[in-house]
Protein 1
Amino acid sequence: MSEPLGTVARPVRVAIIGAGPAGFYAAEALLKQKDVAVRIDIFNRLPTPHGLVREGVAPDHQSIKAVTRVYDKLAASEGVRYFGNVTFGKDLLHEDLKRHYDQIVYAVGAQSDRKMGIPGEELQGSVPATIFVGWYNGHPDYRDMQFDLSHERVLVVGNGNVAMDVTRILVTDPEELAKTDIADHALEALRASKVREVVMLGRRGPAQAAFTTPELKEFGELAGVDVVVDPADLQLDPQSEAGLRDDKTAARNLELLRAYAARPLSGAPRRIVMRFLVSPVEILGEGGAVKAVRVERNELQMGPDGSLRARGTGVFETIECGLILRSVGYRGVPLPGVPFNNAGGTIPNVAGRVTEHGSGENVPGEYVVGWAKRGPSGVIGTNKPDAAATVAAMIEDVKNGVLTPAPGDGAIEALLHERGVDYVSYADWRTLDSYEAEQGAAQGRPRVKVTRVPEMMEIIRRGRSA
């Protein structure tokens, strides 16, 4: 007679797809519960773990990256294994996971961006901010991208924290960035940059801006940078004014913006111009590349749901620029064999349990966490309670006996070897991590990132044979 699922003799075998914060917090929540024995395998497409902590957090925000120490401890836990350099849908198929694992957790984030849907968006020099972020953070997919920084003005569309990050990186003194773990190729390009002004465009007013106060405060602390805000943009309509009473972040932001608006310009060599109530309506080109952006002035109007929405007023202006970075939202991409809600860009679910798109029926043994579950919202820490909620559903399903134990033996290493996949263990990653840190120490930096997968694998293989 087979052992009951979730006992020490037959632990629940869990596969987590994605090694970013959401994936690690799911592992943490599984390990913290005491009632069900589990064994966890974490799979990641790149050799390097930590997801957006490595590839998304701005290089001048090193303190945020300290969270990886928690992930390191989780990865060292008994019953947890890491498989990097394994692509879901290619090296490892959905049916493989169903055969070898009792539960599957998708922690794949939101890898694509939303488009503005305006003419000229496909011109050279019109780029998602996510790609620019990946480029300066050394993401292998984007490290060979080229950005034209020979023009004096860049436009950034959006006013969330990603928009704030790319704006700040564009105007920060490269010698300050040289003390961080910014990718070497990006540092070289930024040293040669001619950009002197970054204009941020927000379609709604300052009270609706999505950035956080610490990010806004950083703008005023940048050496050699003026922050320009038109006081007229800070005049609020009655609904926005009333909303400040219940939104302390918006109230603090407005106070800081008013301080910037009142601050005399210093004649600094670089500047950030923050605009509100404007939307790009067309990107204008010359020779196939971005030349300028036509924008429309907006006003706020109450929507049927009570929210304030931007509506064009028919007043236009044209702003010359050589590069436009859009940061207007993110969305997931479909995974082979996994339900997907194309409208929302998420994996359909109820309380973290994956459901069939359309019928809404549960897909037994499949779960989702993070941005793939709830959409692109929150900060790194938001993933912790989100993952805990999904894990509670997972444990409930084990206890209620609704799972069919996987027929396979869980020997996924043999399957990967058979397919010629050179997967990366966490010990392998620590070899690469140590290499990067040593290179960084020689330059007084946190690390010097290796940005090409073949080079990563070469360093790892040398470490294995040492």
Protein 2
Amino acid sequence: MRPRSLDEVVGQRHLLGPGTPLRRLVESDAPMSLFLWGPPGTGKTTLAYVVAGVTKRRFVEISAVSAGVKDVRAAIDHARRELGLTGRQTVLFVDEVHRFNKAQQDALLPAVENRWVTFIGATTENPYFSVISPLLSRSLLLTLEPLADADIQVVIERALEDERGLAGRARLAPEALDHLVRLAGGDARRSLTYLEAAALLADEITVEVVERAADKAAVRYDRQGDQHYDVVSAFIKSMRGSDADAALHYLARMIEAGEDPRFIARRVVIFASEDVGMADPTCLQTAVAAAQAVQLIGLPEAGINLAHAVIHCATAPKSNAVVKAIGAATADVRRGLIGQVPGHLRDAHYPGAAGLGHGEGYKYPHDFEHGLVRQDYAPAEVRERRYYQPTRHGAEAPVAERWAKIRSFLRGE
């Protein structure tokens, strides 16, 4: 089912549309050097095959997992001879190119520099960290994106009908199609593997057949319906109730059902301030780090980072003082309790500010003992309002004691 032309390639529209660099390079039949960077199953090898096929060049594939410098040089020497004798160019495709060490990557430089081959390197790792700069600077870097659910569906439906696939010999129930799309996780190769396995078991492919073929139960989960909201609600409430086991169950359920990991990460980050807050300030750091890991790594590995954050959130002491504080302050502002900023706190840096009395009488806290000085900070309308009312849970207990002393000093109580 490998595409034979650029128009047959599913997804990656940002790389394949009219006027894009890759399409111009292919259509002009110009020598080129490319790095294709993206997750597994997004079409890196496919694009290399298509480039070779469309431009009618020899295709030579090397796996960086098993090849050495000798193999690289042999492939390049063969390509040079072919170019000199027949004028035919060669596409040298190096899969997992990030696994090559510096010496192996250096061996590619003369071929890239002199255009003896059309070099295409595929990598799932960030090339800026794994590829030597001389090689990277001489190549075009193209980033492939995970395939959307709609793209995976096109791949599956095409394989059902195409002569190169099942040629109509099997029928796929709509629910089974949805399950295959979820199982694929944006990986076209995986979707075809599961479809082929299911077709070997039955001509009528149901959810049960897919479950047997993939050895993976279908998770009943509608990302747009009640199940989505019910599971997310149970997830949050399990963390709030400090049940790490239950929270991990719902986390696994969402991941296995194909929920967007960025959505899960956002909910954990919110929870860290809303339900843990100052009772364990490091919880927010863990949650934000997990959210960054989701962006940097992606699933399935990022599931470990999410689990790390979920366990931290679930087992941390709880406090909703932060969310109550900002809620109370916001409610007062919306009720019109705003008032004027005290004159001594106003910006005094611009010309003419001093003439307006801005900043006059301001006391710089660092000039006083303990870094505290009694002066009015809030507008008169809300000066006696108490927004932050800390609990005595976890790390918030000493904060509560300190805040009580500070507030008493500042208000002269």
Protein 3
Amino acid sequence: MGGRRLSPGQAVDALDEAIDVIRGVWDAGNREPLRIDGTYYQLHGAKRGPAPAHPIGIRLGAYKPRMLRLIGRKADGWLPTLAYLDSVQALADGNAVIDEAAHEAGRDPRAIRRQLNVGGRFGADPGDQLLTGPPVRWAEQLTTLALEYGVADFILASDDPQAIAVFGEQVAPAVRELVAAERAR
């Protein structure tokens, strides 16, 4: 995209600074000019604003410890893609790293929204595969991810109109109902 090449470690540091830049610009109620003297981004008296019309969260899709710690320190949410995780256990492991970093930064880990990009196939022979099979099976599996791993939002990674309709009309309402019933117990 025309930016300079950074090592993976430098990219994490640059993202850390970029979050400060974004939050500083959005802080339009602060009348002091924005000053950031970072390694990658320098603002020497930048004008703040305009403020967003509504709160906009900064959510990061990340998998490695340094990025997970950055989420815990500064981000509003974690948005990994299930297919990129080594296992479902990686959700628990990632949550633990995020929560620890949040505590160290004086943040409440519950303020960090947990989301998950998901994909799969409806109607196929489920076998042992996650998110393969009828909508009721999807709902049960997503409910488990919500209750056991703290996932608040599921985003279907699909361009297929039929899959989107099944997910929105059958799976999502069933997950909401199952989660509500379990939490009511």
Protein 4
Amino acid sequence: MLICKRMIAVAVAVCGLFVAQASALPTPFSVTTAAGNGADSFIRLGQANTNFGAQGGVVVKDSNAGSTTRLGYLRFDLSGSSNNFNDATLTLDVVTNNQGGGGSTPQVHTVNIYGLNDGVGENWGEGTITFNNAPGNGPTEFVNADTTLLGTITVPAVATPNTINFQSGALAAFLNQDTDGQATIILQRDGGNGGHNLVFSSKEGAANAPMVSGSLDGDRKSISTAVGFGADSFIQSGSGANTNHGANGNVVIKHTGTNTTRKGYLRFDLADVKSDVLAAGLALDVSLNNNGGGGTTPQEFTVQVFGLNDGDAGESWAENLINFNNAPGNQSGNNLDGAATTLLGTFTVENNAGGRVMFSSDELVDFLNDDSNDLATLILLRQGGSGGFNLGFASRENGQLLAPTLELVTEAIPEPATATLALFGLAAMARRRRQAA
């Protein structure tokens, strides 16, 4: 009896430790470009061989490919993080905002936030980076296929100094992809107004250096459509309604109102997700972007992301059989069945020839946590017409680009401290809300 009581006491003590670990608060993390291997600078088209790394500001301009076009480069040292960001924020101090030419009136600016893909030229030198050697830089004012679009920020027309925060699940998912302890963010101003001035403080400036912050917790997971029961394809209306495109290297989406309308279908196998999803991002490589008819000019597109509701009879659709007439949740034209699908949000594809986009939303996290059968289907719809234009994302059959991938952070499940937990079955206390009750 005494031995049994002691065993129970040990089990209760370990159980207390287990619960304390499972409910531990996220760890805060922040780093500026002034820390460790961090750096910041900008590049200028009209002075393509000039380095601006010692400047007190990071200047960004869009002068329609003119000589004053500038892009900002920020590198953050992530060696102190564990690549499991639940959330992430980029903080920038605006030190100059006016209409140029001596005018002091502040302007409204839109700035695209790109991430330089992991392992691509990330060791650029703050004292040597220029327009001609900057990684991820395109031929004019556009970034190239080595970058991931994370979203946009709006700088309001207010007097400086002014602090701007870009808080994004897509940013968190991008940081979680890092494998070398460093991450580069590229700032690209959008919308012309080249003569207007917009400057963020650099680490050499009088205001605060650019900063990335967030909370760290849980376990990182990466799941593509090439894993397990994953699949990807697209469907086409009209004369191609019975045609299957499962073997295509692209997931093509179009909105034409005619027989060329196309919708993308992506399925992910969540069997390896054993606990709550805390953060999620969908990474897609743009494999096709032009104006159609043989024209190569990239276009800007808006894409809606829908989830096929959990338990739908069509969740096990076959990649080699799916078509417009049998696709789950599908309706005529560019429509979906509202009772079978849920809108999770939208993202923008910029007018670049390639690159990667990262989509994230609270609705995506909720959708994944509501899953009960380890299958999650996302449906992509293009908006805004322009039917002749082409937009496609790499599929798992592409062979050169990234297959559609979910970047997840899930709630950590501590390992049992002793065999006593197994003896008393206490490991069952690890909650998994994703599974049906």
